[in-house]
Each structure stands twice: as structure tokens, then as C-alpha cells.
Specification:
Helices cover about 40% and strands about 0% of the residues. The chain is built from 17 helices and 4 strands.
Length: about 425
């Protein structure tokens, strides 16, 4: 299979030595692996350290968004994230699907905005570390990701001129303090944008190119403000992190953080026989890449979905990608996009690896909620069925029922709260 890792992912994998550690782990005696109380080997300790949240690198810079770490942009983005006026029916905000009470997702198979989406809502925590957004990676930044749902006919269902009017009426002072003067909207229709609605699309086409550009600039800046908020949504340490940090420091974990025999056995399986760390590696327990794992079609069976094969074409053509007119990056900053693999069977029905942090709280699972329980997910990976299209990367694992139970027990140690900026209801300069 042709390697498709992005430059950032390759750097991360190289930094933690996952490949080397996996090779060494293969040599660990079976007796030690089967004994939950056996001491962790040097190779296992290296792997455990790489998986601990204490090993997470600082937030990477987003060169395409010069406001990514701007405090005023974060406050404005916080307001916009929670504002249902940014939708076609005035009832849908970003927080509708990305609920802070549910770890910034919604626990339903397919996202529901003004209509029903074709995929499950992805959680936001930690995604600022990823070069790609969405299940198929059709956006290459947080701010570009924020824009797609806003004009989607089944998510927010609005258009960029509508949103520009909302910002001008309700957030003009905040906007201008960050981004500069707001463009003149006089003489323009109430609703217009390059959307599926034919009337609004036709109205957009009648606007002069210069004025369309000024509106699109406001739209892009909306996304950049929302991104400044979203990139601060992070995971907090779990029992697993506290257990590993204590082990590596040579001290006994506190009673509440110590692992049971099943949890230790599940962790050994995770980094060994079950091959989970092939994709769920690093401190966020994801390689931020795309894999075909033979997941069945969505529950209704009617939605054709090619995954990354479609997503990579979308991101390359996006008017808001890293190389676009609205990006703040130099072309040399856009290596992920410039060197992205754009063709090959390995992209067909390949979906982004989600973080396993808090995963057990996010049922139903997979990109369209195909599996109702974490045990059902583990059985799928154990059995390695053929993919509906393309080629599955899975190989049969031969796990016993006990081993499936132990893996599930370990995954439950990866639960913690999600940290995020406190909601704001008004602007404070």
C-alpha cells in the first residue's frame, strides 16, 4: 500500500518512535504479555509514555489563520459558536451538534441540523493538532471546517450574505476591532451565496466579483474567529494518564487511579496483539490519518460514501484551503495540502482515525453510527470483514471473548472531562 501519511503525521510518528517500539514489542515473551501483573518492559514503557497526555506537543501554529491565538477573536468565536441566528431557520448553532455537555458531539448516528447529515458529528477536542478536519479531511484547517456546515443545506442551511448581515447587525464593533472595517452591504439582497438553493445562488451570481469577495472575506473571518475558540477545546488527564505517569515516575498510582487486572491486560492487548496503536497512537490516540477498516454502509444503506477519495478532491478545490486567497499562510506553509496523496485505492472509504479519548462515551460509533456499543466495534476489528468498497486494512486478530472484554475495560480508563473556554454572552474588549 502506498504510504499516505502527511508530513506532520510522519514527524509525529518519528518523534515518538512508534514503529521502533512496535517492532520491539513483538519480541516481548508471550508469558509476560499474558500476565497482567508482569512489570512493563522498557519497550512497553516507551510506548506508554508516547500515549500519555503529558507527552502532547504544544498546539501547532495555524499559519493560515493569523487570528488563531487572538484573545478577542476567541471571545467573538465563542459567541458565534453558540449563536443560532447563524442558520437558515434561526434554530441551529454550532453548539447544536457540538454540545459541550456531550464532549462537543451529539451521541446520535447522523448529525441533525435543519436536516439530517450523511455522517456522524465528530468531536472537536484536540483537533487543532490535526492537519485535516471532518471524517474525510475535506478541510485543512479549523476555520475552513467551520465554514462548510454554515452553508450546508442539511446543517445550518444559511448563506454567507445572510451571515454577513448578522455580524454587521449584532457583532460589528467586535468584528471591526479584530478584522477592520466592515464592508458596505447596501443594495445587496437579503440572502445570497454559492449554495444549493437556486434562488440564493442566482442572487450571488448577480453580485459583482469585488463585492462577492468582500462578503466572502467576512465569511472567512467568521470561520477564523470560531477556530480561535475551537482550538482551545482540549482533553484533560484520564485515569490512564495518571496511571502511566505514576508508573514512569516509579511511584505507585493512587488507589483511584490504579488499574485492575482486566484494565492492565486490556492495555497490553492495545499496544500488542490487538494492533490498536497502529492507528491510535500518540498522546491523542490517533494518527490523524485515513483508513479503510471495512466499516459497513450507513444504517439506512442508501448513502454512497467514498470517504477520503472524495474528501481530498474537495479540499484541493476549496476556496478556503491553505493556499487560497483567504488564507494568511505562505505557500511554503501549506505542505500538508501541497503534498497530499490525491489518488489511489487506499483512499476509497478511508475515514479519519478518531481519538480514543472519551470514545466510550460517544456511542453510536464509526463515521455514520453503524455500531451501537464499543464491544461491537472491537468485534468488527477482530473479525476483519471485507470492505463494501476499496480494500480494508484489517486482518483477523483472533481475540477471545475475555480479551474483547479486557480491551473494553481499558478503553473506559480513557474518559475525562473536556476543557474549553467558558461560554460568553456578550463581548468584553
Amino acid at each position: 500500500m502506498t504510504p499516505t501519511h502527511s508530513p506532520r503525521v510522519l514527524r509525529n510518528l518519528s518523534a515518538i518512535g512508534v514503529g521502533l517500539a512496535l517492532g520491539i514489542l513483538a519480541l516481548v515473551p508471550a508469558l509476560a504479555r499474558s500476565n497482567p501483573q508482569a512489570p512493563w518492559t522498557a519497550a512497553e514503557r516507551t510506548m506508554l509514555k508516547s500515549l500519555s497526555l503529558s507527552s502532547l506537543a504544544p498546539l501547532p501554529a495555524d499559519h493560515s489563520n493569523k487570528y488563531a491565538d487572538d484573545a478577542a477573536a476567541l471571545r467573538l468565536g465563542n459567541l458565534l459558536f453558540n449563536d443560532a441566528r447563524l442558520s437558515g431557520n434561526g434554530q441551529v448553532s454550532c453548539a447544536t451538534c457540538h454540545s459541550s455537555e456531550k464532549g462537543f458531539q451529539d451521541n446520535i448516528p447522523l448529525g441533525k441540523g435543519v436536516g439530517t447529515a450523511g455522517r456522524r458529528t465528530m468531536p472537536i477536542a484536540g483537533t487543532a493538532h490535526s492537519p485535516w478536519q471532518f471524517w474525510d479531511g475535506r478541510a485543512d484547517s479549523h476555520w475552513a471546517q467551520a465554514l462548510g456546515p454554515l452553508e450546508s443545506a442539511v446543517e445550518h442551511g444559511g448563506d454567507r450574505l445572510q451571515y454577513a448581515r448578522v455580524l454587521r447587525q449584532h457583532y460589528r464593533a467586535e468584528y471591526e476591532a479584530i478584522f477592520g472595517a466592515f464592508p458596505n452591504l447596501q443594495g445587496l439582497p437579503e440572502r445570497a451565496g454559492p449554495v444549493a438553493d437556486s434562488a440564493r445562488a442566482a442572487a450571488w451570481a448577480r453580485i459583482t466579483p469585488a463585492r462577492r469577495d468582500s462578503i466572502s472575506r467576512v465569511y472567512a473571518n467568521m470561520g477564523k474567529a470560531i477556530a480561535a475558540f475551537e482550538r482551545q477545546i482540549t482533553f484533560t488527564p484520564t485515569r490512564f494518564d495518571r496511571y502511566v505517569d505514576a508508573e514512569l515516575a516509579g511511584r505507585a498510582p493512587t488507589p483511584g487511579d490504579n488499574f485492575s487486572d482486566d484494565e492492565r491486560a486490556g492495555l497490553r492487548l492495545f499496544i500488542g496483539k490487538a494492533n490498536c496503536v497502529n492507528c491510535h497512537n500518540g498522546a491523542l490516540l490517533t494518527d490523524n490519518h485515513f483508513h479503510n477498516t471495512g466499516v459497513p454502509q450507513s444504517q439506512d444503506g442508501a448513502r454512497a460514501d467514498s470517504g477520503r477519495a472524495t474528501g481530498v478532491r474537495a479540499v484541493m478545490a476549496s476556496e478556503f484551503n491553505c493556499l487560497s486567497h483567504y488564507s494568511d499562510a505562505k505557500p511554503s506553509d501549506c505542505g500538508e495540502l501541497r503534498f497530499a496523496v490525491t489518488d489511489g485505492e487506499e483512499l476509497v472509504r478511508a475515514y479519519k482515525t478518531p481519538s480514543l479519548r472519551n470514545a466510550v462515551t460517544r456511542a453510536p460509533f464509526m463515521h455514520a453510527g453503524q455500531f451501537a456499543s464499543i464491544e461491537r466495534v472491537l468485534l468488527h476489528y477482530d473479525r476483519a470483514p471485507s470492505a463494501p468498497a476499496g480494500h480494508s486494512e484489517l486482518k483477523r486478530l483472533g481475540l477471545s471473548g475475555t480479551e474483547v472484554r479486557q480491551l473494553a475495560a481499558f478503553l473506559k480508563t480513557l474518559v475525562s472531562s473536556v476543557a474549553y473556554p467558558a461560554p460568553v454572552t456578550s463581548y468584553t474588549p
